[in-house]
Automatic annotation (TrEMBL):
Coiled coil: none
Protein name: Uncharacterized protein
A GO biological process held by the record: double-strand break repair via homologous recombination
Molecular function GO terms recorded: ubiquitin binding
Source taxonomy: Eukaryota, Viridiplantae, Chlorophyta, core chlorophytes, Chlorophyceae
Length: 220
């Protein structure tokens, strides 16, 4: 809905012949439509805003609010149980029921980070944003932006270490590193604007990089 691509710069000796020089770019789904004008402004922009609110902002906010309410209820029930001498009561059954219903949101995280599922959804949203808005960028810039976001996600997840088991954390970190290495190695085949000199032109090197990419992704 918001992905636009600039075509002509409107500069240079042939500027008079550059007809697609709208500074905000052209809608990727209809390259004849200038962005933020006409149909794009009246239909796609409002539709995109609604979709962003419903499918991008609302889910992580709802997850965080749900778990925050659960944490508040758990603390309240814990205080009530302590007043009753810590005996097994209906309070414990109520807590068990809440865990059964909401456990899929936080069971794999440590108690102090049980709302981290909302952060995971924001991280997934960041990857979607790169995919949508990165389409208007040159391929190598899109790859670098995606690489930066993935490394940032890996750093946050490993730094906080919210998962209950170390093995799950290592597996998640390994998958992100493999994807990052795949993107990095793929840059050897991406034209960065320097022509043939900016890409690998050796068949042996091409085969070697391809084998490394296949091995990395098959192992993990």
């Amino acid at each position: 809905m918001f992905a636009c691509l600039r075509l002509d710069s409107g500069e240079g000796p042939d500027a008079a012949y550059q007809l697609a020089s709208w500074p905000r770019g052209y809608f990727l789904r209809n390259m004849n439509q200038a962005c933020y004008q006409g149909e794009h402004l009246s239909f796609y922009v409002p539709l995109g805003a609604v979709c962003v609110a419903l499918f991008c902002i609302l889910p992580p906010a709802a997850v965080y609010a749900t778990i925050a309410a659960y944490n508040a209820k758990r603390k309240r029930l814990a205080r009530e149980r302590s007043k009753q001498g810590g005996s097994q009561t209906a309070i414990d059954k109520e807590l068990d029921y809440d865990k059964l219903v909401l456990g899929f949101l936080f069971s794999r995280y440590r108690d102090e980070y049980n709302s981290f599922e909302a952060v995971m959804q924001v991280e997934a949203l960041a990857l979607v944003i790169v995919d949508v808005f990165g389409r208007a960028m040159p391929p190598y810039q899109q790859a670098l932006l995606l690489l930066a976001v993935m490394l940032g996600i890996a750093a946050v997840n490993m730094g906080i270490s919210p998962l209950r088991t170390r093995l799950l954390g290592l597996m998640e970190f390994a998958s992100l590193i493999v994807l990052s290495l795949t993107i990095t190695l793929g840059l050897f085949f991406t034209d960065t604007g320097g022509g043939a000199e900016s890409v690998v032109d050796s068949q042996a090197a091409t085969d070697a990089i391809g084998v490394i990419i296949m091995v990395l992704n098959s192992e993990f």
